[in-house]
Design a protein that fits this description.
By secondary structure, this protein is α/β, with parallel strands linked by helices. It has two domains: about 170 residues, 3-Layer(aba) Sandwich (Rossmann fold); about 120 residues, no CATH class. It contains 16 helices and five strands. It has a five-stranded parallel beta sheet with strand order 2-3-4-1-5. The radius of gyration is 21 Å and the shape is globular.
Length: about 350
């Protein structure tokens, strides 16, 4: 449901304040770029921003969550809020979608000057913005630079540098950071009613991603998947170069054959970052999840032996791979390069 106060948005409260201030100062029109890791809250923030702009209570710093505009945005049925994403493109075409093409952008450009149907403004949410083709991005430049004064465009991507400078320079930027463990734990306990120990465990596994943590509270398969992903990392670390190249090939084939594997691969890599960060930079004792992680003790022991500096460098290598994947780089080449650089047990 759309958050109606800052207490219902987990972490990154400065983003809410920035957007509320932009509305108050009549600076919310134009183009925005929201970036951050998967499941950190970018799409939630974008819908919250849309509700803030269209809410019937024009004087509030937060959407009321009760008016017809807020309710329709929550249900995804507001005619003045349009979303473009790879998932929606695939659903509409019945075929896997890997990029946002020129036709999708032209469709926006052709209708952007039409007045809103119900509200005083229109909002366009462009998820997976980094997958725009060069042709689509170039066609969008003039519209991004000078949209109608009743239009707000929000681009959503993992990293702003996965988009061309010509796009970035035309947008106000809002970057969301991983949310501290304590904030996610507090939200799970105070807002969702979880026991401290279980909330602590889920927050630890979330790796700073509140969206993942909330989904994991009712989909325990996500928790099991983290364990599987850590075991897969252990397998890679114990593999020779030929085996690593074969693993990269297998994953790239899955990426090509299944449209949902984009998110699965990002989740795999971010779960790797989580265990590396915990083992080399943080203390398991302070996160209270040592017992849960005991079956990965060999992996933890090896990663811990690398030390904070090497752990940081590993995380940067994985992040670089994620940013390249988000820029539609060749999946097999990106993974081959990453896997060959990972240390050996």
């Amino acid at each position: 449901m759309i958050s109606t106060s800052s207490s219902e948005f987990v972490g990154n409260k400065q983003a809410l304040r920035l957007l509320s201030a932009a509305k108050a100062k009549n600076r919310a029109s134009g183009s925005w770029l929201f970036t951050g890791p998967p499941s950190v809250g970018k799409s939630t923030l974008a819908r919250w921003f849309a509700a803030l702009l269209l809410c019937s209570d024009e004087t509030s710093d937060y959407p009321c969550g009760q008016c017809i505009h807020c309710r329709k945005i929550y249900h995804g049925s507001h005619p003045d809020v349009e979303t473009i994403s790879l998932a929606l493109q695939a659903e509409q075409s019945g075929k896997p979608s890997r990029e946002i093409g020129i036709d999708s952008i032209r469709n926006i450009i052709e209708r952007i000057y039409l007045r809103p149907f119900e509200a005083n403004r229109k909002v366009y949410l462009i998820e997976d913005a980094s997958t725009m083709t060069e042709e689509a991005a170039n066609a969008f430049l003039k519209t991004l630079e000078e949209p109608p004064d009743f239009v707000t465009i929000v681009l959503i991507a993992i990293d702003d540098y996965s988009l061309p400078e010509t796009i970035r320079s035309r947008c106000y930027r809002v970057n969301l950071q991983p949310v501290p463990h304590s904030e996610i734990t507090r939200y799970l306990v105070n807002s969702l009613g979880f026991e401290q120990e279980e909330a602590n465990m889920i927050a630890t596994l979330s790796n700073g991603r509140p969206g993942w943590a909330i989904r994991a509270t009712h989909d325990r398969a996500l928790v099991a998947q983290v364990n599987d992903d850590w075991k897969y990392l252990n397998k890679i670390l114990q593999s020779n170069d030929i085996e690593r190249l074969k693993s990269a090939e297998e994953i790239s084939k899955d990426w090509s054959n299944k449209p949902n594997n984009r998110d699965d691969l990002y989740s795999l890599l971010f779960n790797w970052i989580g265990i590396i960060r915990l083992a080399t930079i943080k203390s398991f004792q302070e996160n209270g999840s040592k017992a849960y992680l005991s079956e990965n003790v060999d992996l933890i022991r090896f990663l811990s032996s690398l030390g904070p500096q090497h752990g940081y460098e590993l995380i940067q290598q994985i992040l670089k791979a994620i940013y390249m994947l988000d820029s539609n780089a060749n999946v097999r080449l990106v993974l081959e390069n990453l896997f060959l650089k990972l240390p050996r047990v």
